[in-house]
Amino acid sequence: MPTNSIWSYPPQSGHVEGQDLTGCTVAASDGTIGHVDREADHHGMRHLVVDTGVWIFGRSVLVPVGVVTDIDAGAGKVTVACTRAEVKAAPRFRTDSETMDRAYLTAVGDYYHGLPPRQAPVT
Known about the structure:
Layout: E1 25-28, E2 31-42, E3 45-51, E4 60-64, E5 68-72, E6 77-80, H1 84-88, H2 102-113
Parallel strand pairs: 1-6
Antiparallel strand pairs: 1-2, 2-3, 3-4, 5-6
Organism: Streptomyces cyaneogriseus subsp. noncyanogenus
Protein name: PRC-barrel domain-containing protein
GO biological process, one term: photosynthesis, light reaction
């Protein structure tokens, strides 16, 4: 996957421009991560801020939209091509200002880009 594509929805993801994903459940290959708190696009680095609830002590994580494999708007579900452990191990998201910090976003993109490729799950 080219590095730039980590910041763009894959064509097969089902993303519709202008679609509001706020509140959608986010599922990894091995279980639920949390729900979409918001979507942001700073420096051309489009990403989801996901509230993990109690799963990782109530903190949020930042997920580049390039790892989204499926959006089921009817079910309110976004599926990503990584595991819960991989999301948890991503560079820590602490403050909203990090969504505008090019260096932080680059580190997040590099992390997700370096994950092993996976096939989209068959549903």
